[in-house]
Amino acid sequence: MKTNSPPANFKQIHRLFLLIILILVACFIGSIMFLYGFDPTLLQLTSLFIICILATGAVWVWLWNRQIAIYIQTLDTAIERAIHDLPPLTNYEETALSSMEHKLKRYIGMAKANERNIQTEKNKIKELISDISHQTKTPLSNIMVFSQLLEEMPGLNENVRHYIQHIKAQSDKLDWLIQSLIKLSRLETGMISLQQIEAKPLIQTLTQALSQIYAQAENKQITINIDCGTHILACHDVKWTSEALFNLLENAVKYTPHNGQISVLAESNEMFTCLHLTDTGLGISSEEIPHIFKRFYRGKQAREFEGVGIGLFLSREIITAQGGHINVISETGKGTTFSVYLPQR
């Protein structure tokens, strides 16, 4: 809603000047009466003069306010026309308003050109990522398939079988690394959009994430305890939140020794649903906690295990994009608790 009334600070200035004028008028009348006594004619002339001064001042203030309102309205119209790429309002006049309008129009044009360039670069990156994903998938799949076929051939000695297993392990690692980098690049370039963010039971998302790490946990005889009721809801995207939780749980399994334990506890409050993921693993030193969510960062103890330091960064990006956040509490040698907070609405 547009208004032509002057700003509040102008009103305060007007009131201040009006008060000063009234004080001066009172002082003037008091001085006249003190010097010349009570003279009706002189008092009438003085009063008429003061009324004229006040009326002139009131007209001047009204005109001033009107000019300011017209100027602001004209400037607002000029800005709207510049935003919508319409012809200039002032038509290259030699005025400050015309200069301001054309500078603004030039700035908006530059901003739109930069926006188009950024969008073009983003499209190129999207095409490059898609091309990399497509070009690496086929040869890597072939390597993994041929490795499997070689391993199944009869009569292989132990050294050859060992080399084949090493090729398979490195191929799996390379496949995981490529997929993680592609996911990260897609997330940062906007190719991945978290559009299906709505209140859903958290147990479904958690089950989807846990199903991917159960085999690893069983191999290390790690016990997983889950406390998450079906009534606990969170506003989230199931697919990508599951990916974030999988990264956290995979780290928990990786850094927890044999016969360890992982606990998953979900609870709700007025604003957030919190998921606490606690392990009995190596733990993280207090000096390293501020850095663990950085891209490609790996702690001193984590360097003994396979990985490149993408999982925690990707998890935080996914949770943050949904209006949530992650907290970490850890102690070296006693385990770690990642607390994932997701909004309820």
From TrEMBL:
Catalytic activity: ATP + protein L-histidine = ADP + protein N-phospho-L-histidine
Keyword Cytoplasm: no
GO MF annotation, one: kinase activity
Entry superkingdom: Bacteria
Major localization class: membrane
Keyword vocabulary terms for this entry: ATP-binding, Kinase, Membrane, Nucleotide-binding, Phosphoprotein, Transferase, Transmembrane, Transmembrane helix, Two-component regulatory system
UniProt EC number: 2.7.13.3
Xref: SMART domains: HATPase_c, HisKA
Subcellular locations according to the entry: Membrane
Annotated Pfam families: HATPase_c, HisKA
UniProt cross-references to InterPro entries, sorted A to Z: BphY/WalK/GraS-like, HATPase_C_sf, HATPase_dom, His_kinase_dom, HisK_dim/P_dom, HisK_dim/P_sf, Sig_transdc_His_kin-like_C
Protein name (record): histidine kinase
Source species: Paenibacillus odorifer
